[in-house]
Amino acid sequence: MSRQERENMIQFLTKMEGMTEGKLMMLTDEDVEHLYTRAYTMSERV
Fold first, then answer.
1. Chain centroid to CA 34
2. pTM over 0.85
3. How many other CB atoms are found less than 10 A from the CB of residue 1?
4. Residue 10 to residue 45: CA distance in whole angstroms
């Protein structure tokens, strides 16, 4: 994943899920992508 993709995912998660940037920065790319996919899927259902 590119740096820009990761940054966009982290911004989305902080806004939509209320997660802190500090916590997300400690996760692997795979973890961030998993959380993003789950949150994005849930936001589409609303």
1. 8
2. yes
3. 12
4. 20
